[in-house]
Amino acid sequence: MSVPILVEVAGTYGGYITYSELASRLNRATGIHTGQLLSNWSGKLLNRVIHLCRENGLPARSALVVHASDGTVGKGFDEVFRASNRNVPHTEIERERAAAAERLECYRVYCSTIPADAEPQLTRQYEARVNPRKKDTSRTNKVCPLHGIQLPATGFCDDCT
Questions:
Q1: Which of 1, 71, 79, 112 has its CB 3.0 to 4.6 Å from that of 126, i.e. a possible disulfide?
Q2: Distance from the first to the final alpha carbon of the chain
Q3: What b/e sequence results for 53-85 when a residue is b if at least 16 CB atoms lie within 10 Å of its CB, and e otherwise?
């Protein structure tokens, strides 16, 4: 049970896949369909992947699978810590940073084009949530030199014309 789809995802630096995308690709690849809820069987599958990776000295490919809604690996990823007798993270950000580090290790094993200075990366969605970009307030508005008021979009002072 190597889940070749995850090896393929790890072959692209910065790559990850959502649970639903993984399910869809697994269904197409195997022809197996289930009436079970995605959350009921995907956790079992990824739990097995975690243990197989650990047994074979490989990084946990389950770090490559994230929720579509927020880009997180979720609490199921805590099995990576339990399987290696490490402390389970207390916060979501700790878990997601650990998952980012594990994804980087996956890229190092499976990706041939990883930059030499590569660092762990949160998913785009999660990064945007925890580090929202601030609006650029450095832009200065033009002011009429005679009246000292901000110029409208036309660039001409209404009081001067």
A1: 71
A2: 76
A3: beeeebbbbbbbbbbeeebbbbebbbbbbeeee
